[in-house]
Design brief:
Layout lengths: L1 E8 L1 E2 L5 H17 L4 E3 L30 H15 L2 E11 L2 E9 L5 E5 L5 H7 L1 E2 L7 E3 L2 E5 L8 H9 L4 E5 L5 H18 L2 E5 L2 E2 L15 E3 L11 E4 L6 E8 H10 L18
Helix pairs in contact: 1-2, 4-5
Length: 287
Amino acid sequence: MKLRVSAVQYHLHTIGSFEQFAAQVTSYVRTAEEFESDFVLFPELFTTQLMSIGRGDGSGEALQIGELPQYTRQYKELFQGLARETGMHLIGGTHIIEENGRLYNTAFLFYPDGRVAEQRKLHITPWEVKGWNMAAGDSLQVFDTDKGRIAILVCYDMEFPEIVRMARARGADVIFCPSCTDDRHAFHRVRYTCHARTIENQIYVVATGTVGSLPTVDFMRGNFGQAAIITPNDVPFPPGGLMTAGEINDDMIITGDLDLALLYEVREKGSVTTWRDRRTDLYPDWK
């Protein structure tokens, strides 16, 4: 009934090779392994760091977003290998994939046994459409693991209560939220709605974001991020619903333990029982 989670505040900086990217990822994963974590969460769009490698022609020009999918195979192989070696579930942030000429901002779950599952971002921000011509995913997935049922909702997705309600109705007790925000306004939109979703649905939310800067990569020059483990706001949990959080904009990893039994307890006899008290006679439910 308990699981340990780690969330990475991934430091973006210019690199010169995939091997440098792999070394940075591995360092974070090994740190989480030392804490004996069950899940490790990386941020949204952290693989845009690979765009800073450029084309190797000495121009110093970064790759364009449509060229990032060329690293998909190496990215997957890296995370699959680390998941197998460590026995942890790795949520590899998001990576841009291409399918039928469309780009999708896609989160990946790497199981310790080598399986790979994915969740495409469902709600696309105006700048993702205008700047990158990103397409939206069309289905919500929930994932069964040996530690419980989870869902992965990417950044802007958390600002839509309906989709989180749907994940909870399908049995998810923990929502992992990889995000990437460029300023305080965007960061707080995601953070405040994560708190709201834990209260509405009596679930845990684990969130993290990118920090640092990619000076040569369009739309990735500014990052404002902080990892957090967020709980319902009730007596068995920390005041304010914040189990732990990182230092804003620092390169670091946070870790905490989630007790699923406490969720079941407050759903039945908490100070408030928001999930049980839904008025589905007045508004729709999600099955």
